[in-house]
């Protein structure tokens, strides 16, 4: 059975979190693992039965924690022999890409147009996306507009 690791900052009440819970429940053919980068606000975890997914909580608080958390995720991937890495939301994408080995199967689900919310406000978010994104990573967008925006800014 293939092992898939889902990474998200938290399971607070939001669209990305609801979508991730639905994805996990829709993939019973995988051995699902979930890493919550933050150790707080797990409201929607109640929607995922314990039998459907192994959950691990880390202590991500800010961008300053990225390298430390990436090391923990990389170790988790190796120890659990993860086949596929799926992430939701910006910081989870960055950690997933940095933690994955070269040519790993990495899927990033984009929820929103980042150029307006992130790239124009803070150029560092754009540089991190460009630095970590590789052509062999897979981008899933909630709409064609979201995908076009990512392609325009990140490539």
Helix segment count? 6
Kindly report how far apart the N and C termini lie: 33 Å
Number of strands: 6
Query: What proportion of the residues form beta strands (DSSP E)?
Result: 15-25%
| Cα-atom radius of gyration | 15 Å
Structural notes for this entry:
The protein has 155 residues and is of the alpha/beta class. It has 6 helices and 6 strands. The chain has helices at residues 15-26, 66-80, 90-99, 114-119, 123-132, 144-153, and strands at residues 3-8, 31-36, 54-57, 84-88, 105-110, 138-141. The chain has a 6-stranded parallel beta sheet with strand order 3-2-1-4-5-6, with helices on both faces. α3 links the parallel β4 (84-88) and β5. α2 packs across α3 (90-99). The longest helix has 15 residues, at 66-80. The model has no long low-confidence stretch (mean pLDDT 92).
Key structural traits:
alpha/beta; six-stranded parallel beta sheet
Topology:
Blueprint lengths: L2 E6 L6 H12 L4 E6 L17 E4 L8 H15 L3 E5 L1 H10 L5 E6 L3 H6 L3 H10 L5 E4 L2 H10 L2
Helix pairs in contact: 2-3
Summarize this, please?
The protein is an alpha/beta fold and 155 residues long. The chain is built from 6 helices and 6 strands; from the N terminus they run E-H-E-E-H-E-H-E-H-H-E-H.
């Amino acid at each position: 059975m293939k092992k898939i690791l889902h990474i998200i900052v938290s399971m607070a009440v939001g669209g990305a979190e609801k979508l991730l819970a639905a994805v996990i429940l829709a993939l019973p053919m995988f051995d699902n693992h979930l890493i919550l980068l933050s150790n707080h606000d797990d409201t929607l975890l109640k929607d995922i039965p314990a039998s459907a997914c192994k959950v691990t909580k880390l202590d991500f608080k800010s961008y300053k924690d990225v390298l430390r958390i990436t090391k923990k995720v990389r170790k988790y991937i190796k120890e659990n022999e993860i086949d596929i890495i799926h992430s939701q939301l910006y910081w989870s994408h960055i950690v997933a890409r940095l933690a994955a080995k070269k040519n790993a199967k990495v899927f990033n689900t984009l929820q929103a147009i980042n150029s307006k919310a992130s790239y124009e406000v803070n150029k560092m978010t754009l540089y991190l996306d460009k630095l970590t994104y590789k052509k062999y990573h897979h981008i899933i967008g909630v709409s064609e507009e979201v995908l076009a925006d990512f392609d325009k800014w990140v490539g």
